[in-house]
Write a structure and sequence with these properties.
Blueprint (H helix, E strand, L loop, with lengths): L4 H19 L4 H13 L6 H5 L2 H21 L3 H20 L2
Helix pairs in contact: 1-4, 4-5
């Protein structure tokens, strides 16, 4: 699904703010792992995601949930909203399972 440019800007702004706060809490190797994962553009269910440390996984999932919240808020199509709500539910359950 194509996202409207205004929504994309809002998502990017919120994620940059979260990333800035999260980088303060991570060590050097964790920062590097987070940056390489974000640059690769892989999904939170990939093998590389599962290889990350739990702190980095939590940050990626929180950023993903934030972007889905924004899309759900701005989407008018009920089927698309339902699809994003399901994705948010699975991401929150993944976040709870990370130790």
């Amino acid at each position: 699904m194509k996202i409207h440019p205004d929504v994309q800007k809002e998502i990017q702004r919120k994620q940059e703010k979260q990333l800035k706060n999260a980088l303060k809490l991570l060590s050097g190797s964790q920062k590097k792992a987070l940056n390489t994962f974000l640059e690769s553009g892989q999904s939170p269910a990939s093998k590389d995601f599962k290889a990350l440390k739990p702190n980095v996984q939590k940050i990626v999932l929180k950023m993903n949930i934030t972007s889905m919240d924004i899309v759900i808020e701005r989407t008018k199509n009920p089927f698309a909203r339902w699809r994003y709500k399901l994705a948010r539910l699975s991401s929150t359950s993944l976040l709870k399972n990370i130790s």
